[in-house]
Write a structure and sequence with these properties.
The chain is built from 15 helices and 14 strands. It has 354 residues and is of the alpha/beta class. The chain has two domains: 130 residues, D-Maltodextrin-Binding Protein, domain 2 (3-Layer(aba) Sandwich); 158 residues, Periplasmic binding protein-like II (D-Maltodextrin-Binding Protein, domain 2, 3-Layer(aba) Sandwich), CATH 3.40.190.10. The strands form two sheets. Strands 1, 2, 3, 4, 5, 6 and 13 form a seven-stranded mixed sheet that branches. Strands 7, 8, 9, 10, 11, 12 and 14 form a seven-stranded mixed sheet that branches. The radius of gyration is 26 Å and the shape is globular. This is Extracellular solute-binding protein. InterPro entries: SBP.
Length: 354
């Protein structure tokens, strides 16, 4: 064989080797699983969920999370209007989540760890936190002023001391905030003190807000002396960092809600979405809720039950969990909701209701 023939043969062998290697690499790429991307639409602050999401993706490296944040009412409107639904929906507005399940938009999830019965519904909707609703106050404003113990005392104080309270109290705009509306309707079920308190807030020209964080900022600055019905977990995170703030559980009762998650029926990644739900309620997920976020874990082995919550707040109280049940839909009936909002607006604006 001539030198030229040997060179040609060598070149051909090299070419064949390159082609074989390229084929093998192509085969490997073709057989490698594609990364699943889960679209999560949520009414929970990204900062509160970031460690939890990072923990999940670390445990499931083949799954990525695309996280979009809304307020509770905006989230509901977006989910109902969307042609392409997200894979998962997370919200603190329990009634709106039950509504999505009732409309047939949720998919069952199997093998979810056991949790309290009040915090799950039809194996389609799962709470993963327990968070009290609280009263936030400015410590300097109340340095020489008694704090209220009950809602009745709070209503009387606001009514009897206009110089101190007028224009300096805040609460949710229940027409704008889905979770604020849920808190207000749950209060209303507890008796006449709720309507009396709203009327007192109206006389004091209460300011209304979309979000707990806005109220926190106003109380910290001293523009408000107190804010009623704030989300305790969000507010407590700021209280720990800001000595101007105090947080109190009124002794008559404290509502407790659960932040809940569902997998949409439209999801084309139901198995991966189910993995996310199971992770939230796993030991690892609940530990991240406890240690890696401002939220409070649902499972009592991590939260240590009522003592866990009360040790973080001033005051002692009876906790009233809001149950994930169809009864929440009562207040979403169009006529009932319209009347409630009309009466609430009349009271908060200082008008008598006929």
């Amino acid at each position: 064989m001539t030198g030229r023939s040997r060179a040609a043969t060598g070149a051909a062998c090299v070419l064949l080797a390159i082609m074989a290697l390229s084929f093998l690499l192509f085969e490997q790429r073709s057989s490698a699983p594609e990364r699943v991307v889960l679209d999560v639409w949520s009414a929970t602050d990204k900062t509160a969920m970031s460690a939890i999401v990072d923990g999940f993706t670390a445990a499931h490296p083949s799954i990525a999370i695309n996280y979009t944040e809304y307020n509770t009412s905006e989230l509901q409107e977006a989910v109902l209007a969307a042609r392409e639904k997200p894979d998962l929906v997370i919200s603190s507005a329990m009634d709106l989540q039950v509504q999505l399940v009732n409309l047939g938009l949720a998919s069952p999830v199997e093998d979810v760890p056991p949790t309290p019965t009040w915090s799950r519904w039809r194996e389609e909707l799962f709470g993963f936190t327990q968070e009290p609703v609280a009263l936030l106050y400015n410590r300097k404003a109340f340095a020489d002023h008694p704090l209220p113990d009950t809602r009745s005392e709070l209503a009387s104080m606001i009514r009897d001391e206009p110089a101190f309270f007028n224009g300096r109290v805040g609460t949710y705009d229940v027409a704008l905030s889905g979770v604020g509306y849920m808190f207000a309707t749950q209060d209303a079920q507890r008796g006449f003190q709720a309507s009396r308190l709203v009327e007192s807030l109206g006389r004091a020209k209460a300011k209304i807000y979309c979000c707990t964080n806005d109220m926190v900022q106003e109380v910290a600055s001293g523009d408000l002396v107190l804010a009623y019905n704030v989300i305790g977990s969000y507010a407590l995170e700021q209280v720990r960092q800001d000595p101007r703030l105090g947080i109190l559980l009124l002794s008559d009762y404290a509502l407790v809600f659960t932040r809940s998650v569902l997998v949409t029926k439209a999801s084309d990644a139901k198995e991966a979405a189910g993995d996310f739900v199971r992770f939230l309620l796993s030991d690892d997920g609940q530990a991240l809720v406890d240690k890696g976020s401002s939220l409070f874990p649902l499972i009592e082995s991590f939260g240590k039950g009522q003592a866990f919550v009360e040790s973080r707040f001033e005051g002692s109280t009876s906790f009233l969990p809001i149950r994930l049940r169809p009864s929440l839909l009562t207040w979403l009936d169009e006529r009932k909701k319209a009347k409630f909002l009309r009466d609430w607006r009349g009271s908060i604006n200082g008008r008598s209701i006929n």
